[in-house]
Give the backbone structure.
Amino acid sequence: MKSSVIIFPGSNCDRDMHVALTKFGFKNTMVWHNDQLIPKSDLIVLPGGFSYGDYLRCGSIASKSKIIKSVIDFAHSGGLVLGICNGFQILTETGLLTGILQQNKYLNFICKNVFVKVKDKKNKFFKNIKKDILELHIAHNEGNFFCTDDELKNLEDNNQIAATYCNSEGLENDENNPNGAIKNIAGIFNKNKNVLGMMPHPERMIDEYLSGEDGSLFFENLLGNMK
Amino acid sequence: MKIKVIVTLKNGVLDPQGKAIQQTLNGMNFSNINEVRQGKFFEINVNENNEEKAKGQVEEMCKKLLANLVIEDYKII
């Protein structure tokens, strides 16, 4: 399976993502934001970081960069697109995903491990995943997912909520909501579920000794589903 | 021609920065403040002499880039 990771000025999780994808068997290519064409890929990843210094709004400038038209065309043709953290912010700014990531409710940059509950398995990203609750890492200042009531209803009605913040037992409440996101939302899909954006970083949880391996589960499972 | 734009969060959208500013002002003994909402100000120099045309262009810019209409309103002044 071939993947491409897009690098924007200010991306800083691009290499981690490359290491993770390669570790689990993807043949990955790094693609510069100023290119117009993406090499033939089965998966495109928009990595975490601070594209364009988070100027204007997080992800807004990247969402108008040269490469983005190819990403949008790829998504519209059914290709798998994964946006992590800043990648999620970029996907909302392109309009591929609903809503927006606002500043965290308590104005603090959050960097810690959290638990998220997988809410939908009828998609390529989470089908067959062995655990319902994953321990992943978050590191963001703008992860507070917000959308209108109508958009939230659509997300719920179409099962587009991918993952929610919870505790290790799966309890979703305010106490286990790190950033104030509506309904504890940590990640969402587009309507066709080929585009996934989420704040937690699976690429940081791929080493048995350093981090735990719930990220490994994610990547192994994704690759398995794509074959 | 210079066109000015103010982008603010929509009513009802949480504005934690505005809240923090308000609390700080309260702490500085400005005690009669009900609410602070913060926003962005843009001054755009458009190479265009027709004001209506220039404002039309800036409106497009607001919709496409300067404001995110999910949470923000814009005002061209």
Chain B touches chain A through eleven residues (CB under 8 Å). The mean pLDDT of chain B is 94. The longest helix of chain B spans residues 51-66.
